[in-house]
Amino acid sequence: MSGGEGETLRNFLPETARGRLQSARLADGIASLVFDVSGLNAGARDSLEADAKAAVAKAPGVAEVRVAMTADRVRRRILAVGSGKGGVGKSTLSANLAVALARMGRKVGLVDADIYGPSQPRLLHAEGVKPVARGEKLVPIQTDFGLPMLSMGQLIEPGKAIAWRGPMVSGALGQLIDAEWGDTELLVVDLPPGTGDIQLTMLQKHKPAGAVIVSTPQDLALIDATRAMQLFELGGVPIVGLVENMAGYTCPHCGGTSDPFGSGGAEAEARDKGVAFLGRIPLDIAIRTRSDAGDPPAAGDGPQAEAFATVARAVADWLDRN
């Protein structure tokens, strides 16, 4: 604090701002304030700045208020969620995994990196919500489920096809990942299916801490899942484990169970490849209907939520050990 004038300025601040004030000085009518904003998200920082400026502007001799902010650097890690082919429920798994991790108290955000087929705005009830920019960085939107999210689907006209070549795709991915994520410590990145430009950009420029691979139990999906694992391994990205999606169907009318896509294939593949098996997600109409309605099952209770929570606990345990 800079002498008596600094203490005077401090007394004009709201109590919540005083505890974060590092220095204050008044010279030539300009009040200069420096705050420690470690742990605050973008919205909280904006509110702190606005409140401080409004309060200190009332102090005698103040003609202008300038605010600077400092924060401890957040160690942010990336968790990639990939699959070898489309149609295996990777985006639904990504959304519910992120929600489940957030419910566990993790500071997690979600990036929808499927540039050509973004679905996270619908899955997280955020269609039509546009992110804003602060300087050269996007500010993620806050979802109803305790996690910030960014998707190309929020930046383009709904229903419009994207016809981009590799460099444009890579640039878009960089904007999403290098956004203003605040105190977010983990980014769950929903990758498009396959092993193309976006996956290579992710490996070369953003280096995930680990990758979760999603597959159905059927042999064809498992062959493609193996290719996805090989890509990450070649890029030096550890495989967190394999998730078997659409694993078993229980008829809501008769209660009978069946396995239209087979059973246990992903677990056997994980065992064969020496990677962890993270859990099974059932083929359940409730998951489909709630997902279409923007109400991720992981946000509630019951067997569907527990299936995603099981995967989330395994992922969290891996992150804590690595």
CATH architecture call of the largest domain: 3-Layer(aba) Sandwich
User: Which ranges are low-confidence, i.e. pLDDT below 50, for 5 or more consecutive residues?
Assistant: none
Please identify the top-level CATH class of the largest domain.
Alpha Beta
Distance from first to last alpha carbon: 41 Å
The portion of residues forming beta strands comes to 15-25%
The tally of helices reads 11
* H/E element order: HHEEHEEHEHEEEEHEHEHEEHEHH
Structural category is alpha/beta
Output the CATH topology of the largest domain: Rossmann fold
* Net shape: elongated
Arithmetic mean pLDDT: 83
Overall radius of gyration: 23 Å
> What is the CATH superfamily label of the largest domain?
P-loop containing nucleotide triphosphate hydrolases
Helix amount: 25-40%
Number of domains: 2
Q: What's the number of extended β-strand segments?
A: 14
Query: What characterizes the major β-sheet?
Result: 9 strands, mixed
